[in-house]
From TrEMBL:
<dbReference type="Pfam" id="PF11796">
    <property type="entry name" value="DUF3323"/>
</dbReference>
<feature type="domain" description="DUF2399">
    <location>
        <begin position="291"/>
        <end position="442"/>
    </location>
</feature>
<feature type="domain" description="Conserved hypothetical protein CHP02679 N terminus">
    <location>
        <begin position="70"/>
        <end position="276"/>
    </location>
</feature>
<dbReference type="InterPro" id="IPR013495">
    <property type="entry name" value="CHP02679"/>
</dbReference>
<dbReference type="Pfam" id="PF09664">
    <property type="entry name" value="DUF2399"/>
</dbReference>
<protein>
    <submittedName>
        <fullName>TIGR02679 family protein</fullName>
    </submittedName>
</protein>
<dbReference type="InterPro" id="IPR024465">
    <property type="entry name" value="DUF2399"/>
</dbReference>
<dbReference type="InterPro" id="IPR024466">
    <property type="entry name" value="CHP02679_N"/>
</dbReference>
């Protein structure tokens, strides 16, 4: 059986092969329809539609796709007797002897026109039998237009969310979407879903990832690990929240949680010292011991009261030292332990709602500035010994013991001079290096 025979009734796009799923252009379809209207399809199928002539239709179609004229001869090596007989019926005479079968396209075109079967000749006949033929160059241009349109959701997201503009450009230029989808239509569906998710983030208050997926995408497993959608959305989450690079299940869980999406409600935690407002918190504050609060606890039994000021630090060593030195007398302190977790954001947002204000300190390095900026996007805070002047003093005190600064520079919105001075000195100062001053501030 040949590629085009026997031929079913033609429908638009049924035989369009080039273009990776792109449909026939409007102009080509209209021209093909006009030509097909004049073709005597019944007689044409008897004359040219036999399976034994499918090789001939294939050669003609390929010429049309490449934009080559339908002149000269085409040959078939080692034809069968049935193929020779079909060519003889088509031309009304033997096509010639020899081991191969040779058919002149001009002669076929003349037969079709003279007989009235296809007044527009061989091109119209091939289109009537196999569907509109789109030249490859036209198909390539149509495909590129379709791919450009598929990225429209990313373009609109970058316009509305400048923080995601660089990420959107990277996704578009990397070729990842093309590789995982294969067609513009599938890519458009994938990007529509990804953008729909990112426009809803960060989730406040934090929510279960599966519940969020069901609400936004209509399926609880739509953002399951291992799917192209989850991979693209998670990369967008990192661009949105500034979550650092990493790998592994724990890192992915933390990355989702940075945007308020939780795989469970007990893995996300926050450290606190001397907060009150629940029986458990009151008991821990009475003895001056740190406590670990899970997101589940904060969702079901949040503190009922809040102090006027809560100090916030980046590193657990500061909180542990405060418990050691001051115990129950220490001012209330919350520790982020790196990027703010969903539990940390839930706690601080709740305390702010109760009237608390925040004083924040972190490491004097680019990672510390990223963490501070992320926190500032969620809750307002004033710097706690975390300004350009504080950094200069810490550098002078550290002397040659300070470590060199590494990483990509980032701004410091609460004190623009801090980022500039950090780059100027190129020295990293960790919270532990200024621990004495921080502990002094935590004395009531």
């Amino acid at each position: 059986m040949g590629r085009y025979g026997p031929y079913p009734p033609w429908r638009p796009g049924a035989y369009g092969r080039a273009g990776g799923g792109v449909g026939v252009s409007g102009s080509a379809a209209e021209a093909a329809a006009a030509e097909a209207a004049a073709v005597d399809e019944v007689r044409l199928r008897r004359l040219l539609g036999a399976a034994e002539l499918s090789w001939l239709l294939d050669r003609v179609r390929r010429r049309l796709e490449r934009g080559r004229p339908l002149t000269g001869a085409v040959s078939l090596a080692a034809p069968t007797p049935a193929q020779r007989a079909a060519a003889e019926r088509l031309l009304g005479r033997a096509p010639g002897g020899g081991a191969s079968l040779t058919v002149r396209l001009d002669a076929v075109d003349a037969v079709l026109r003279r007989s009235g079967i296809s007044p527009e000749g061989l091109p119209a006949a091939v289109s009537a039998l196999t569907g509109p033929v789109v030249p490859r160059e036209e198909a390539r241009r149509a495909e590129e237009r379709a791919w450009a349109e598929a990225y429209t959701p990313l373009t609109l997201l970058a316009r509305d969310e400048p923080r995601l503009a660089d990420w959107a450009a990277q996704v578009r230029d990397s070729g990842l979407v093309r590789r995982v989808t294969g067609t513009p239509a599938a890519a458009r569906t994938l990007l529509d879903q990804a953008v729909r998710v990112l426009r809803e983030l960060p989730a406040e208050p934090a929510r279960s990832l599966s519940v969020f997926a069901a609400d936004v995408l209509g399926g609880a497993h739509a953002l399951d690990e291992g799917t192209p959608l989850a991979a693209i959305v998670l990369s967008g989450v990192r661009a949105l929240t500034g979550h650092p690079d990493g790998e592994g299940a724990a890192w992915r869980r933390a990355a989702w949680a940075s945007a308020g999406l939780l795989r469970d409600d007990v893995s996300s935690t926050v450290l606190a010292l001397n907060l009150r407002g629940t029986p458990a918190l009151d008991w821990m504050a009475d003895v001056g011991e740190p406590c670990v609060l899970t997101l589940r606890q904060l969702a079901h039994r949040p503190p009922r009261t809040a102090p006027a000021v809560v100090h916030v630090c980046e590193n657990p060593a500061v909180l542990s030292a405060a418990a050691d030195h001051h115990g129950a007398a220490s001012l209330p302190l919350v520790c982020l332990r790196g990027q703010p977790s969903a539990a940390a954001l839930a706690l601080l947002t709740h305390l702010r709602g109760l009237g608390a204000a925040f004083r924040y300190h972190g490491d004097f390095d680019w990672g510390g500035l990223r963490i501070a900026t992320t926190l500032l996007r969620h809750v307002p805070w004033r710097p706690w010994r975390y300004t350009a002047d504080d950094y200069r003093g810490a550098v002078a005190a550290a002397g040659r013991a300070a470590a060199p600064l590494a990483g990509k520079p980032v701004p410091s919105p609460w004190d623009p001079d801090l980022a500039s001075v950090l780059a100027e000195h190129g020295i990293r100062i960790e919270e532990e290096a200024v621990l004495g001053a921080l502990l002094a501030d935590l004395t009531p």
